[in-house]
Amino acid sequence: MNIGVLALQGAVAEHIRSIELAGAKGVPVKRVEQLAEIDGLIIPGGESTTIGKLMRKYEFMEPIRNFAAEGKPVFGTCAGLIVLADRLEGDEEPHLRLMNMKVARNAFGRQRESFETDLDVKGIDTPLRAVFIRAPLITEVGDNVDVLSVYKGEIVTARQGNLLASSYHPELTDDYRLHELFIRMAKERGTSHVGH
Ligand code: GLN
């Protein structure tokens, strides 16, 4: 399995490390053509406005939408979750509009800018260590979205078919089980499309 990490801005090297710990090959994706060589794509944390701007500049928007439409998995973490969302709170322009959810940026306020916690995540048997940094929250989800974890009543992990999103940074700890889950999603896609 080759798992790409969109390498325009943000925590790229950390994701590559977690992907490799989880047993797949990590590929920094800087050019659109590289999408053809990967089985899944991670959009990392960083700054969503900047990532969105660079995605438009380097013409990644349509190719990533097509990648997802082919059933290949896409995982957005923190700023990457914001980039995946169909709707943003306030009058901010959404980016990829792939996931049927509404997202509030910087939703924890100044007091809780960054913190770590252990989260119960559906599909992972013991709590996952999660690092939140100026994190967004999912404030609404459509019926086709599965909520995988909540923190203090707020949605922080969600899945919609081949799309996965986390409010936090799963790549900043040694706990790479969310990456393993994502790699399983990529493998399932691989087998379910055999013969097509
Ligand atoms: N606050 C950032 C944004 O709105 C996201 C922070 C992060 O990715 N750690 O884009």
Short structural description:
The protein is of the alpha/beta class. The chain has helices spanning 12-21, 48-57, 61-69, 79-84, 177-192; strands at 2-6, 25-29, 40-43, 74-77, 85-88, 99-104, 114-119, 128-133, 137-141, 146-151, 154-160, 163-166.
Query: What is the overall number of helices?
Result: 5
Strand line-up across the major sheet: 2-1-3-4-12-11-10
Please report the first level of CATH classification, the CATH class: Alpha Beta
Shape assignment: globular
CATH architecture: 3-Layer(aba) Sandwich
N to C succession of SSEs: EHEEHHEHEEEEEEEEH
Question: Which spans have pLDDT < 50 for at least 5 consecutive residues?
Answer: none
How many β-strand stretches?
A: 12
What is the total domain count? 1
CATH superfamily annotation: Class I glutamine amidotransferase (GATase) domain
**What is the structural class?**
alpha/beta
* CATH topology value: Rossmann fold
Terminus-to-terminus distance: 19 Å
Radius of gyration: 15 Å
What share of the residues lie within helices? Answer: 25-40%
Largest sheet: 7 strands, mixed
Subunit structure: In the presence of PdxS, forms a dodecamer of heterodimers. Only shows activity in the heterodimer.
InterPro entries: Class_I_gatase-like, PdxT/SNO, PdxT/SNO_CS
Function: Catalyzes the hydrolysis of glutamine to glutamate and ammonia as part of the biosynthesis of pyridoxal 5'-phosphate. The resulting ammonia molecule is channeled to the active site of PdxS.
GO molecular function, one term: glutaminase activity
